[in-house]
Amino acid sequence: MTLLQLPTPKQEEWRWADMAALRTAAGSAPQPTGIDPASLFLDLEGPRLLFVDGVFDPARSTPGPLQITRWTPETTHPLGQLAQGEGWTLSLAAQQAASCIQVVHLGSGGESHVPAQIVLAEDAVASMVETFAGTGWANRLLQVKLARGARLMRSVRLIQSAGFVSIRDEAEIGEAASLVSVFLAAGGMASRIDGGITVIGKGAFAEMGGALLTRETQKQEAAVVVRHEAIEGSSRQLWRAVAADRSTASLAARVEVARGAQQTDGEQSLRGLLLARTATVNLKPELEIFADDVKCAHGATVGELDQRAMFYLQSRGVPENRAKALLTRAFVADALARIGEDTVREAFAADADAWLDTAL
Amino acid sequence: MLNIENLRAEVEGKEILKGLSLQVNAGEIHAIMGPNGAGKSTLGYVLGGRGNYTPTGGTVTLNGEDLLEMEPDQRAAAGLFLGFQYPVEIPGISNVQFLREALNSQRRVRGEGPLSGAEFLKLARAQADLLGMHHDMLKRPVNVGFSGGEKKRNEMVQMGILGPKLAILDETDSGLDIDALKAVGDGINRIMRAPDKAVILITHYQRLLDYVKPDFVHVLADGRIVRSGGAELAHELEREGYGAIAA
């Protein structure tokens, strides 16, 4: 459709993006996936939405408070702009709750674009899980507005076997509101997880993090900007990247503290693990601070598995591959620990384990 | 049980073991003493199969099997336990998870069925009780935030759970206060003093040998065993120093 307008690696924000994989996925012909969409929902009570190739499937959905509608969201994001037409919205009045919402995106090939919107009024609470499976280019935009005291917990897993998943999250977090988003990319697709989160209310909390697991010649990346515009806000960006074979995992995380956003507490932890010398992890931590009374802890490291720990495990009888799997799982565990719901966290851990079994 | 003949080994191109021979039979406890840099820890690592510790000559058999041909995990399944001088901290993996994985991997190699979570926990708690280790520490990440003494106790709990045939304990006494030393000594006696088991204690000092009486004491110097004797040799070393004996 609009592939000519896509960003290119010449633009700094897109230097690690695998646009070739995106174009290939967009042009791929639909094939039967052999996946039963029902198997992609977790065993949790709550509203369920199924999108097959970007088209809402009412017969296999139970929307509850969610609505399906068509619109063109306002955004300047180059991929987010493409996500227009049929999508879903969740709007909760004050003190309402909705959990656990599940949205499943199953692709069979070609491109699909779905916009989404979540608006939570004061003290409303929602939790959701999104799952991307199948193949093709799945392009999604989510716009979130959290009023005072509202809380949203969002967990997203990318387990497409091939293709490309691009996700753009844009959020405004009001006073004392909280947004926690955790991503796990543990499939065979390429990906771009892109976030623009703005803390606009006093004492708000924003977290966006997760784990990217790449193998073979896969390229995945996360690029997140958290902007603090109000005082006493906290944010946390905790990302783990694991790269095997000749793959590339890239993390770019930026914290911006606007003038006057005093007593901001930002934390940024980017860590990469190389499972092969031919793999690549790119890390780009950035801080831009225009206030003088802030705390921004940041760390960025890339390394290999600790050989001393490997020998310790092996010397107790754990075979080499299992030892690698245990240590790698421990490495990504921090990133998934933020998922509050046990069923969801365990499902994500199982996806990570399945990836490890294949990659090691 | 363990038969080492003329073992040579190098670390990063430097020869450390220069023709070491040692025979350890079932039911025996051997102490290997020696000055710093003699090759004591290298011997432990070569027998354990650590990368970069490369055997260059000689043979080692454990119950008739060629030990040097095996991967480290296969050596463990064959009954070898290496107690570390500096046990490694592993964030993100609990003791219980690690040891259950280790024990069940060993059992698989030996053709035995895996222990369930409940069966394993019962075994682990019993061993922790015997070593005076709090049950909470079983749930904590492996050695993370443990004191020196707690790490060594944890090594003994691991040994109790895994039930090896041959334990090679590398300076298990270092960094221990007197209570911990006694607990570790008792642990070694209880777990390993049996007609079908054997121990090699690698140590710098006599003090652990007050709790674990060795049947044989060997002096390792410059990559070879230069003298062997009974328990009295340890006292002689303590009295006269390595210089006189190893010369």
TrEMBL record, chain A:
Coiled-coil annotated residue ranges, if any: none
One annotated GO biological process: iron-sulfur cluster assembly
Top-level taxonomic group: Bacteria
SUPFAM superfamilies reported for this sequence: Stabilizer of iron transporter SufD
Matches recorded under InterPro entries: Fe-S_cluster_assembly_SufBD (IPR055346), SUF_FeS_clus_asmbl_SufBD_core (IPR000825), SUF_FeS_clus_asmbl_SufBD_sf (IPR037284)
Domain (SUF system FeS cluster assembly SufBD core) ranges: 117-331
Protein name in the entry: Fe-S cluster assembly protein SufD
Organism: Sphingomonas xinjiangensis
Upper lineage: Bacteria, Pseudomonadati, Pseudomonadota, Alphaproteobacteria, Sphingomonadales
TrEMBL record, chain B:
Organism name: Sphingomonas xinjiangensis
Alphabetical list of PANTHER family matching this protein: ABC TRANSPORTER I FAMILY MEMBER 6, CHLOROPLASTIC
InterPro entries: AAA+_ATPase, ABC_transporter-like_ATP-bd, FeS-cluster_ATPase_SufC, P-loop_NTPase
Pfam families: ABC_tran
Keyword DNA repair: no
ABC transporter domain segment(s): 2-247
Keywords associated with the record: ATP-binding, Nucleotide-binding
PROSITE patterns, per database record: ABC_TRANSPORTER_2 (PS50893)
Protein name, UniProt field: Fe-S cluster assembly ATP-binding protein
Molecular function, one GO term: ATP binding
Membership in a protein family: Belongs to the ABC transporter superfamily. Ycf16 family.
